[in-house]
Each structure stands twice: as structure tokens, then as C-alpha cells.
Amino acid sequence: MTRHDDGVTLPAAPSAGRIEIDGLAKRFGPLSVFEDINLTIGEREIVSIVGPSGCGKTTMLRCIDGLVKPDGGEVRIDGQRVTTPPRGVAVVFQHFGLFPWKTVFENVAYGLRLSGVPKKQIEASVLRHIELVGLAGFEKAYPYQLSGGMQQRTGLARALATEPQVLLMDEPFASIDAQTREILQFELLRIWESRPTSMVFVTHSIEEAVLMGDRVVVLRGRPSSIHEVIETGLPRPRTREVLSSPRFNEVREHVWSTLMQEAEQAERELQESR
Amino acid sequence: MSFDAGRRRSLSVSLLGLVLGAGIWEYVGRHTQKSSFASFSATVSALWHMTASGELPRALRSSLELFAAGLGIAIVIGFLLGLVMARIEIVRTGLEPYVAMLYATPMVALIPAILAMFGFEFRAKLIVVVMFGIWPVLINTLEGARSVNPELIEVAKSYRSKELQLWGHVIIPYTLPFTMTGVRQSIARCLIGMIASEFLLSANGLGNLILIYTQRFDTAHVLAAVLSITLLATLLMGIGRGLENYFARWKVGV
Amino acid sequence: MSAVPQSAPLVRPFVLNPGVRKLAIRIGTGILLLALWEGLVTWLAPSYVARPSGVARVLPRVVSSAEFRSDAKVTVVSVFEGLGIGVVLGVVVGLTMGRLRDVDALLRFYVSSFFAMPLIALVPVMTLWFGYTGTVRLVIVSFGAFLPVCLNVYDGTRKLPAQYVEVADSYHARWWNVWFGIALPASLPYLLAGFRLAAGRALVAAVIAEYLVSLKGLGYFILYDSRTFHQNEAAVAVIALALLGVAINSAAGFATRRLLPWYRPS
Questions:
Q1: ipTM of predicted assembly, 2 dp
Q2: Which of A182, B181, C173, C203 has its CA 20 to 30 A from that of A148?
């Protein structure tokens, strides 16, 4: 396990870093959410970001997409500074963000339609991606007719249809029941194997972070900052066997004890402040 | 933009809107014939004269008596009938389509018939106002009393609530916010009924002021009467909204 | 088996075939109400007052008369014209107020004041502006329809879940994509609820305008026949207006189910 190394962010070779996060900081009013975040994410790399609720990991993801303006530092994607949502980047939201008045087909087509792709091409691509996420036959269904898992499959297909080079996952499976979540995790890994992209995977589930990531970024403290970056060193393609491997358990225990220390400390501080 | 700065900006734009509105009204009023439009200042001074002479307070009182009596009767009948319909399935099934039909009927169409049956004095006008106002209270009460969570009734029964206690502790408190939504809608409809009956049956109150000053082509006084009706309506709707919020104070996100 | 009751104890269990029973009760109640009307009028009111038997007698003649038909046409056409104008303006203004804070601050006071007041109070002074013409009816009907549509669309746009806008932003949506692709469809249920209110107000406004401005139409038909002691004939026109109200309402309900298959009222 390697400690996080500051200062690797600046001029890196294009192949080394697709996403460069450089001294990123965000405040809400007087409250500093996170500060001094430095991270480089490679072209075919999955980086998980894990931390306690309220640590600002979701906000950080929005900063990477340019949905939220940071108060310090910057994010560069392929060397371009991010100010508004860049092309080639797609987000999968925890809230799914499906438009209830659109069918599965129309929801998946949304991103393509906004970028003015010809109709024929949209249709072919949408059908291909609906198939890819295992929703063939549900093209005409409305979101309310789908289970949570199927809704998020739709959200995933919408993101993939734009053929992004960067996928930002905002706790995508957090509001899905445990069994379905596990199915979707391996489904996502399977899809990623067939078309690897850079992926930032924000989650509060330690297992999920370790299972998905090449590296796991642990956020700690208030304001939070990067406490540790862990190379998981798990083989790809990842299958269910990974879950029972000694290495998986080792990493998971390590992340768990790191976050527990913080939780206990926070509890102690709360006690003292009373 | 911070929350406060946003509010301050909204407030100043609102004020600007009011000033702009009054300015346009004044400008248009000064540049049109007196018999078709009056300026803001002329309207305000007409309002002042009508108030000082006691004409407006008298009209207001007469209109409000009609309104309050009509609304009161509409609420009582609407609420009770709504509860009865919610409680007794056969009454609900029988009456539902006819209630929906009467709700959709423009009640003004019935005014000539009411005139024929009840004359054009206070009683007839009261019937008009009640006919306008009763439906929203009835329909909302019915909806509310029907949607009481069965689990709550189960809880009440497990504590051996008597029927009367069940109503007092569960059904009526649950229904009142719905009823109050209906009351707010009824306030608006009763005002229409009030003005319509003053126009079409015996001319009294604010409606009468509008009619007589229109006949005299005295637009300043007509607009003053319309303005006072608008102020009255805004005030009454505010009271309605306050009641609604008060009775719904236990609901989340209201 | 669960011990939780399947439906509210307020509802008693059905015994008969529910559909047949329901229809029987409704028809029975209808007959009862008509009998009550017939009896009360015969017993209490002068002979010229409308009653079901009288209405039934004159119904075929009135409905087939050219006068009734042309009056009905005038009223229906002007109500639909006014509704059309009111809905279009209401959607545009409501959407703009919902999306732009300054426009909201500028107009909210006026829209809510006119919404609260009885608009029919403006009919007399409008005769001074437009003369005793159909314009008065068109303007008052349009304005009456505009206000509820505008306020409802405004409300729907204001309550637009932020997450939809976030998704749109992440896919590079421009402002018109957000307004017409997201805010408008999301507020369609509100628009249809507003339309129902608008239809009710439009009908009242049309009839009042016809009464006060003596305009050809169903309202004036009612007024004239009532004054000449043809109450049964007037009642036919009242029923026609009621049916028009019910028809517009059912059409809006049908449209909600048909055009908004995705909509699930919470």
C-alpha cells in the first residue's frame, strides 16, 4: 500500500492522466467541504472514492463534470480545464435522473438527441445500448413501470450511448436493494471490460469501492481531504471469486479500519463538545 | 448569489413592478377619455371620496354580509355532506356523478331560475352564493375523509376508540386540511357568486357600485370599486391560505 | 394471512356485482332527484318554473330549433377561442415566470391579484372599452382562462425537481432544451389541472358576459326565455351548459390519462 503522493499532477504525459484534479476545494458558505484534492486518473482506470456521508464526495464528482463550480483549484480533462460539462464525459446519478415522461428509448436517446446526432444513428445506437444493459424488450416502458435496478440500467445505457471517454458514477447503486446491486456491479464490470474508459466511482460502500477500483481514494477529516490512496491490485476481469480472495479482504479491512478511526474520533469530539 | 441577496433583489423587482404598473396606469389614464379609463390618481381619489362619504363602507358591509352568510352555509353543508358521503357508501355512489356534474356547471346559468323561484331579494342571492361555494368544500372533504390511512384507524381501534372518538381524534383532524383547501377555493367562487347576484338580482353592495358608476360613465369610481373588490379578494384569499396552512401544520413539507 | 385490513374500514364490502350495483344506485338516485325536483316545484313554485316533465316535453323542439343551435354554437366557439388564447398565453407566461426570477417578482403580484378577484366585476367597465360587442366576451373568457393556466404552469415549473435540470446540464442542454424539453413536460399535469379550472371560469365568464352585454349565445337564451316565462326552454340551455362543462372536464381527464401515460399522481 502506497501513501498518496502529492505533486504528480502537473504536466503528465497525455496517456498517463485523462483526468487531472489539481488543488480542488469547495465551500458552502463558511463551511469548507473539502480542500487540496490532488488526483490523476488514467485512461483505462477505475478510481473509487469512498468516505463517510457528508464528506463531499458527490460534490467532488459534480466539480469534475463542471456541474458545480469549485472554490479553489481546477479539474482538467485531456488537458482542457473544466468549466461546464465537457463532451465525452457522462454521469450516472444516484437519483437515476430519468425523465418520467420519456420512455426507456427516449431517455437513452436524450444525450444523443441534444448533441444533434442524426435520427437513424440515434436509433441504432440506442437499441444497441439498451441491449447492452440487458433491457431489450423494454424500449417502450416508462420509468414508473421499471424496478429500481432496471431504472438504473436505463441511466447507465443513457450515459454509455454518448460513447464517453470518462464515466462519472455518483453512488449509482446506493438506492438499489442489495441483491440487485451485486448483479449490477458485475454487469458494470463486464461492460467496462468490453469498452474500458476512465471511471470515477463514488460510493459509501467499502466493498463496492474495493470491488470496482484499481485504486481506492479514502477521504477523511473535516474539511475532508485525501487521506490515503490504495492500489487494490486485484486482477481484471473481476468476477465473483474476487470477493472471497485474501487480497480483497485485506484491502477492505484496511479501508474499514481507517474510516472507523475517523468515525470514533468524530464521536469523541461530539461527546467532548457537549 | 446568496439567499438573502436573491430575496432582496426579488423584493426590489416586485416594488419596481408595482411602481411601473401604477405609472403605466397613470399615463394611460391621462391620455384616454375620462369616460373610458381613469388614471391611477383619479381612481385613488375616487376611492377616498367613496370611503369618506360612507358609500363604500356601506356597500362593503352589504356585500360582506351576503358573502359571509353564503360562505358559512356552504362550508357547513359541504363539510357535513362530504363526511356523510365518505362514511355511507350508498350515498356516495348515488350522489358522486351528480355532484361532479353540478361542480362543472357554470352556476350563473341557474340565476334566472333562482330568480323565478325565490325572487331577487337577500334569500335568492344567498342561494346563489351558496350554490357557487358549496362544491369545493364538499369534494375536498369527501376526498380527505376517504383517504384516511387505514393503519391509523387500526391504531385507534386497538386503543378501543369509540366511534365518536375515532371521528374526533382521527378522521376529522385528518380531513380538515383537505376541507380548508376547499374553503380557499370556495372563497373565490363565493366572491364570483356575490358579484354575479348583485349584478343580476337586486342591486346592492359593491356590484351595485360598479353598475351605477358604469351607467354614469364615471370610470374613476368604477375602477375604485373594482380596486376595492380586488383588495378584499386578496385579503380573503390570504385568510383562506392562512387557515389552510394552520390546519395542515402537522403535514410535512407544507 | 395478514391481519391488516385491505381497504379503509370506511368502505363497506360489496355484495352484489359491483358494476351493476353501482349503476343501479346511480340511476336510482337520479330518478329520486328528478322526482324531488318535480315534486317541490309542483308543490311550492309558480306554474311557469321549470320541472323535469316540462323540460322533457320541450326538449326535442328546443334542441332542433335553429335559434338554439346557433346560440349554442356561438357560446361554444367563443369559449373554445378564449380557452385557446388563455392556454397559450398562460403556458408562455407561466413558464417564463417559473424559470426567470425577475419576471416572477415583476408579475406575481398582478397575476395572483387578478386570480383572486372575481373577474366578472370587470365586465361592466369593459363595455365602456369595447362597446356592447362580442369582444367583451372574448377578452373576459381569455383572461379568465389565462390566470389559472398561468399560475398552475408557474407552480409546476417552480416545483421542477432539480435533478432533472442537473441531468440536462450534464448533457449540455441549452436554455430552450430546459424550458421546453424539461420544464414544460414536467408541468403538463399542472397545466391540465389548470385547464380544468380555466374551463370552469371560461364558461362562467361567457355566460355572465352574455347576460350583461346582451350577446347572442346560450347565456342570453337562458335570460330571455326566463324573462318571457319559458323556464322549461331555459332549462334546456342550462343543461346544455352543464353538459359542455362536464364534456370539457372529461376531455381533460381523458387527455391526462391518454397524453400523460407516465403520470402517477402521488
A1: 0.88
A2: C173
